[in-house]
């Protein structure tokens, strides 16, 4: 009777182990089992991820994927996992693959029974995308806070400059020094730049009545402002649903669409085509401005709208800041699609009734 029970038990164990192996083998994450500095098993996803064949990896030291500085720490983790009764805490680690490339992973270990002996199961989860997003967010936050700081400084510097301008006008009343005129016009330029920065970053502070805006009419008129630059650019207009109108600050929106069209033109230094569309869909006015210009690199898309981000020698990098802040403060959205060498499309969606005034 005991023998029958024993054989049933060991059959169960074998079945369990086979099931366990299948789960591990077909897991999409890297899993390998090792003991005493030797890898005993690695699943298919693991050998693909580590860029080596199973033959190369089995028998190797698991520390071969660890950079020298981290080896003592990982040895300590393996020791801890061997003594533990369950999983030990997960860490993030950069590992070196067999083809020499580095990759960020979540690294987790726990003890297992393998081939009748105690071993360690190590799992690696690829976190490259998460890390990249984190890096981009940090970069964006950094740029945004620099922008905020710049706005603060602009505010503080504009007031004393305005007083200087007042005093200069008083001096001009009693003096005729030839430099006074130049001083005044340079000062005005500086005040204008600061005013521009403040307006761009906080469009809601800009006093203007909310009125119905016929965007179709305004977009058609805007094009005339670029007459002198249009000799080698074709403009295609597809303006539908002109009866649908938003209610907002007209000059802010004109400036925003002016900035988008100006960018499209500047993206096509040679010949090119700009397409401007206006249509109504899902309770929103859509304005699409597409060009077949130089395009925007993927890693720069997130920087768009950040004050002072510009790839142009002469650019201030405030054009898109004005576009994004105006549209978002109104309750709309801006989407960008771009491909290097093919072109760029900015899609502005504006709800008929603004959520924020
Ligand atoms: N249609 C576009 N095609 C290609 N790149 C674009 C386009 N629109 C914007 N960009 C990129 O975004 C950057 C920021 O644009 P933004 O309008 O904010 O500043 P700018 O055009 O450089 O300067 P300005 O303050 O004179 O507008 C540009 O320098 C350019 O690299
Ligand atoms: Mg611009």
TrEMBL record:
Keywords: ATP-binding, Kinase, Nucleotide-binding, Phosphoprotein, Transferase, Two-component regulatory system. It is an enzyme of class 2 (transferase). InterPro entries: HATPase_C_sf (IPR036890), HATPase_dom (IPR003594), His_kinase_dom (IPR005467), HisK_dim/P_dom (IPR003661), HisK_dim/P_sf (IPR036097), PAS (IPR000014), PAS-like_dom_sf (IPR035965), Sig_transdc_His_kin-like_C (IPR004358). Gene3D superfamilies: 1.10.287.130, Histidine kinase-like ATPase, C-terminal domain, PAS domain. Residues 152-354 form the Histidine kinase domain. Signal peptide: none annotated. Pfam families: HATPase_c, HisKA, PAS_9. Its EC number is 2.7.13.3. It catalyses: ATP + protein L-histidine = ADP + protein N-phospho-L-histidine. The keyword ATP-binding applies. PANTHER family: C4-DICARBOXYLATE TRANSPORT SENSOR PROTEIN DCTB (PTHR43065:SF46), SENSOR HISTIDINE KINASE (PTHR43065). This is histidine kinase. It comes from Paenisporosarcina macmurdoensis.
């Amino acid at each position: 009777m005991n023998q029958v029970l024993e054989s049933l038990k060991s059959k169960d164990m074998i079945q369990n182990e086979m099931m366990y192996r299948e789960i591990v083998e077909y897991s999409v994450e890297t899993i390998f089992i090792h003991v005493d500095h030797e890898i005993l098993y690695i699943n298919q996803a693991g050998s693909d991820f580590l860029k080596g064949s199973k033959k190369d990896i089995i028998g190797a030291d698991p520390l071969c994927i660890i950079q020298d500085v981290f080896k003592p720490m990982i040895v300590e983790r393996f020791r801890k996992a061997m003594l533990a009764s369950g999983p030990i805490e997960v860490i993030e680690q950069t590992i070196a693959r067999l083809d020499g490339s580095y990759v960020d992973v979540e690294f987790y270990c726990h003890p297992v029974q393998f081939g009748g002996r105690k071993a360690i199961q190590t799992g690696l989860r690829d976190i490259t995308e998460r890390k990249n997003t984190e890096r981009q967010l940090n970069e964006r936050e950094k740029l945004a806070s620099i922008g905020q700081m710049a706005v603060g400084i602009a505010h503080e510097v504009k007031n004393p400059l305005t007083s200087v301008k007042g005093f200069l006008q008083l001096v001009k009343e009693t003096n005729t020094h030839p430099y006074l005129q130049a001083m005044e016009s340079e000062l005005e330029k500086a005040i204008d730049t600061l005013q521009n920065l403040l307006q761009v970053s906080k469009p809601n502070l800009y006093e203007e009545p909310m009125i119905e805006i016929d965007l179709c009419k305004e977009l058609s008129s805007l094009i005339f402002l670029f007459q002198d630059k249009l000799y080698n650019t074709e403009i295609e207009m597809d303006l539908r649903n002109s009866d649908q109108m938003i209610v907002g600050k007209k000059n802010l929106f004109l400036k925003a669409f002016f900035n988008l069209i100006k960018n499209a033109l500047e993206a096509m230094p040679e010949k090119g085509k700009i397409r401007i569309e206006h249509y109504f869909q899902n309770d929103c006015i859509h304005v699409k401005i597409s060009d077949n210009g130089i395009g925007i690199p993927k890693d720069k898309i997130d920087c768009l709208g950040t004050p002072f981000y510009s790839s142009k020698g002469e650019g201030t990098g405030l054009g898109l800041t004005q576009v994004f802040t105006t549209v978002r403060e109104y309750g709309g959205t801006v989407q960008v699609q771009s491909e290097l060498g093919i072109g760029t499309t900015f899609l502005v969606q504006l709800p008929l009734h603004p959520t924020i005034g």
